[in-house]
Amino acid sequence: MQGSSIWQPQGRESVTPAKLDWRALERKWQKKWDWRKIHETDSDSRRPKYYVTAAYPYPNSPQHIGHARTYTIADVNARYHRMRGYNTLFPMGFHYTGSPLFAMAKRLREGDPEIVEAFTRIYGIPRSMQEKLKDPKSMASYFRDDIKKGMVEIGLSIDWRREFTTIDPLYSRYIEWHFRTLNQKGLITRGTHPVAWCPNDKSPVGVVDTQGDVEPEIGDSYLVKFEKDGVFYPTSTLRPETVFGVTNLWVNPKATYVRATVNEESWVISRETVGKLQHQNHKVVVEREIPAGELLWNTVRNPVTGNDFPIFPGSFVDPDNGTGVVMSVPGHAPYDYQALIDLKERYAGSAEAGPILQATNPISIIRLEGFSDFPAKDQIKKFEVKDQNDPRLEPATQELYSREFHDGVMRENTGSYSGMPVAKAREAIVQELTRQGKIETLLELRNAPVVCRCGTKCLVHILENQWFINYGDLEWKKLAHKCLDQLVILPEEIRAEFNYTLDWLRERACARTVGLGTKLPWDPSWTIEALSDSVVYMAYYILSKYFAKDWVVFKKFEKDTSELPDAFFNFTLLGEGAIDGVAKETGVPKRILSAIRTEFEYFYPVDMRHSARELVSNHLSFYIFHHSTLFPERQWPKGIVANGFVLMEGAKMSKSLQNIIPLRQGIARFGADPVRVGVLATAELGQDTDFSEGLAASIQQRLAILIGQARRLGAKKTAGKSKTSILDRWMISRLSIAVLTATNALDRLRVREAINIILYQLDNDAAWYKRRLGPRKPRSDNRDRILRRVLETRTRMMAPLAPHTAEEIWSRIGNKGFVVQSDWPEEVENERDPKAELAEALVRQLLDDTSEILKATGMTPKRIAYFTAADWKWQVYLKALKAAGEKNRQGDFIKEIMGDPLLRSLGKNAADYASKALKQANQMPDEMRQSRLQDGITAEKTIFANAADFYQREFKSPINVWKEGDTGISDPKDRARMSEPYRPAIYLE
RNA sequence: GCGGGGGUUGCCAAGACAGGUCAAAGGCGCAGGGCUCAGGACCCUGUCCCGUAGGGGUUCGUGGGUUCAAAUCCCACCCCCCGCACCA
To answer: In strand B, which positions have an atom below 7 A from any protein CB?
Structure first.
């Protein structure tokens, strides 16, 4: 273990940390760990187990620094528990399911500049390699390999024997079992469901499938059907209640319309509407095309009022929005109002159209506080709209719609809805018109146009016979809640989010027609989608080890998975069925079956599931749901931890900002441990954390300094003196407290706090210790022995966080074996030394007070004298502490004090001090009062006298220490009188 | 809209659940000093304002309130971030 190779040649005796070759150091220890297989974990009934899992990665791009956060936290947790004596399992797999791999490969094939740029510029993948990635599976295996290397390089303590992908035949077989079991429990349902759809790809589109990553929003709109001679003119609207205020219809004069039979009715709609209706399962037969001109100026009948009115040209009408036929409510819709004005102007001189237009005027049907009868007109003025194509119409409309919806009231001319709030009236009118067959609903993309990556405009499609997992099942919800209630959630604040999600989840589509994955066992035309096949795979890690290890036995199932019956899973995972029967049915030897069963029973449930915060509302909640129904209560998950994002130099990482550091590049540049600590050090769990090069560099320095310390101390044990000083005891006491708080912090995965204590806090203590000791005097103190002790304990605590550095230090200070396999230090009660702590606190306080006086006065001391409080003051002080606890009144207290003959002899002095002491005691927090009471009279004079040479060094001045009332005291300004317990008087000259 | 999280002293970030020891940890940055040939690193000191005696004043998004005492508890308001489904 002579690691001189990790130092580059310039190293020499003076430690120059920047010269450390981190990669060599890391590789050295990773090799040794690997050689000794220390991360391979099997069941061991003699030891308690701990099972950690983290969300497996999706290999459609390399991982970056951000991904490292979840995995590093999981690894810290795993390593910490190993050192606490738990037989700890931390496995990893790869998620291939779904279409993102296809999508990514496709974008690469098509030369999508964003992707090519990212792969080339950010990830540094050579062009020649990119060729190979154009095939989805090659891409997956390439990135899988890259991600795995990254995980090894950053030092994750993973048992790689259990690795798998979600398209392995036996994994698919497992998911089939999973879904069949859910189905048997009645939790799979079938139904009809609207989705955003690309008619070209014939597939649903989500946010990742659209140009510009737009999330398609689906919403209902209403089709109010106007009529003329048995022909219907369905108009699309979000505000059916305004039908009372309709004065005309609009059609786009440049658009083409069709007459079509829709569900046995004759409709007039835009040409673009036909496809939309068909995708929503309407039967549409087009009879003929109608140019818009043919429709203009005709009249139609209002289905509610029965009035006839004309159809006008409106250039603002989008034939692709709704039906391309729009009802006009100029009193309350700014677009309509403006269009009417434009039209009147344009046809002012027309003998034909002029009169009709002049007769068309806004109708007021909604009363709205703060607006005139025609709010649309008010808005046009307010937003200074120029014409019907003015973009300011949009916000004008938005604002008015929302105001009217929330605060508007229907007027007298709206029949039975008169006096109703608008929101209520809308509901009522929809109900009534639906009954009369005068209204229908149309699903629309609210944020149209949404364009698929293939370039096609998306629309809403109703998928028939879609398969769902029914999270709405009430019994299931109850189970899930019960499971959640007994889960440890870190950070605890996100529990509310879980509760909300469990309540809110209902049917969720669980299968798609495209993408990689497992076919639905009873309907192979569907593939189980990615968020549904990834919720119980933690159990599969137990199986996968045996699938690999007993390869010969399981090989035949890989060729034909149907040979592996559900009985196998029911037995190994649920303990159902008799082993003999299962062995016979499967041909798997009993020995193996029972080994799997034993191992499963041993490791399950998962003790801590690590994931990112944004998965709370889907993956992690599904995880709870599925486990609660699939497994018995004793095998329900025990804990979930969800961490926030990693920011890069304060900004969100994004391909466009080019501020992504790929993990492996980061490791190469900064080293594994600096990256590990870097993603953990600046924020607590739930918070977003910020990574920066500066941070990584500074952590690297810090770690190198510790290695340097180890180097200086060397492997040889130093004898030191057997008798420890109070200062030595203080240092050990501080160490003991550090162990205690770091342990508490890691128990709750407060990793940031642990790093703070272990890497920084202890440095400050050690620095104080050395400063107090002063210049090194060989053989006269214990410093090397104590500092070695501190470093050794500290190294063990560093091991989960920065394992490579810890190993290096561990070996350099002469320890055998791996520090990562050593025991986590325990706080030793009798090493806590409150007296030493108190003494040092006093020494420090006096140092600060003296400095402050020097600073305020600007003087350079020729002599410094400290006067500690007289014994009688201590007596009064302690009595005051007691009295404050008992809520004594001031007067009574002073009387009591003056009852003491000795104190009475001191006269006013004693009374004054008594009143001051009581006041202080009353303001003190309870805890402090108690501890001071317990400490009793402190030997301040001794403490300060012992520190005299320290003060002398610090202030470069002679120091005298007296107790108030000592004989021979030199106190020209009579300052000793001002001394108080815990607050010696100071005299400077 | 619904739900969740947050706004702290130049920046980042603890503290808040359990109100007093909080002008408020720690890190970064900045300034001065030590060490050094020098730079870096390291160590010390300072870093809201005032102050020739360890003190005083004003601060924790804004405005109120409770309390002997509020960054912390209560109410109202303003602002920022995240999740909301067929997408991993």
So the answer is: 3-6, 11-15, 20-21, 25-29, 40-46, 51-55, 68, 81-88
Write the burial class of residue A48 (CB in 10 Å: 0-12 exposed, 13-18 middle, 19+ buried).
exposed
DSSP 8-state class, residue A452:
B
Distance of C1' in B36 from CA in A831, Å: 39
Residue A852 CA to B59 C1' — how many Å?
A: 22
**For residue A885, what pLDDT is reported?**
62
Which run of H or E residues covers position A443? strand A439-445
Range in A209-213, A311-315, A437-441 with the lowest mean pLDDT: A209-213
| Strand nucleotide closest to residue A17 (CA to C1') | B41
Q: CB under 8 Å to A792, separation ≥6 — which residues?
A: A810, A813, A815
Contact assessment for residue A312 and residue A298, using Cβ atoms and an 8 Å cutoff: no
E strands, A7-59, are 49-54
Q: In the structure, how far is the CA atom of residue A189 from the C1' atom of nucleotide B36, in angstroms?
A: 76
Residue A789, number of CB atoms within 10 A of its CB: 16
Euclidean distance between CA atoms A743 and A40, whole angstroms: 25
**Please, are residues A71 and A612 in contact by the beta-carbon 8 Å criterion?**
no
Strand partners, A983: A980
Q: How confident is the model at residue A721, as a pLDDT?
A: 63
Of all nucleotides in the shown strands, which has a C1' nearest the CA of A975?
B53
A532: which nucleotide lies closest, measuring CA to C1'? B86
* A685 in Cβ contact with A644 (< 8 Å): yes
Residues 6+ away with beta carbon under 8 Å from A478: none
Q: What is the ipTM of this complex?
A: 0.91
Sheet (strand A959-963) strand order: A959-963, A864-868, A985-988
Model pLDDT, residue A779? 61
Tell me, in Å, how far CA of A913 is from C1' of B69? 23
Structure-block tokens of residue A76: 């810290």
State pLDDT tens for residues A330-343. 989 888 899 888 88
Confidence tier at A834 by pLDDT (50, 70, 90): confident
Stated pTM of the model: 0.87
- For chain A, the average pLDDT equals 88
Q: Which residue's C-alpha is at the least distance from the C1' of B4?
A: A497
Angle at A931 between CA A929 and CA A934, to 5 degrees: 110
State how beta strands A203-204 and A188-198 pair: antiparallel
Strands (E), A451-591: 459-470, 488-490, 507-509, 511-512, 519-520, 523-528
pLDDT at A1: 31
Query: CA-to-C1' distance for A856 and B45, Å?
Result: 14
In angstroms, the CA of A616 and the C1' of B5 are apart by 13
Beta strands in A41-187 (DSSP E): 49-54, 87-89
